[in-house]
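re the bet — no i am not wrong, look at it urself. input seq straight from the record:
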Amino acid sequence: MAINSDEQEGNVERISDYDRMLERRITILETRWDAILPTLATKADLAELKAELKDSIYSESSKLTRWLVTLTVTMIFGFAAMFATMLTLLRP
C-alpha cells in the first residue's frame, strides 16, 4: 500500500490550512486575553472590597438590631394599651 505523491501533497496542504487556522485562533485568544487581563481584580482590590463589605454588613446589622428593639418596645406598649382599654370597657 504505497502513498503516491499527489496524496502526500494533499496531506501537506491540509496540515498547512489547519496550522493557519490554529494560529489564527490562538492570535484571537491572545488578543482577548490581553484585553481582559487588565480589568481583572487584584488581591489588593479584593482585600479592599472585603473590608468595605464587612463595614457595610456591621452597619446594617446594627441598624436592624435598633429597628427590631424599637419594634418590640412599640408592640409591648401597644398590647398594654389594648389590654388596658379592654379592662376599662369590660368593667360593670
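see?? Residues 42-92 form one domain. told u. also The chain has two helices and no strands. so pay up
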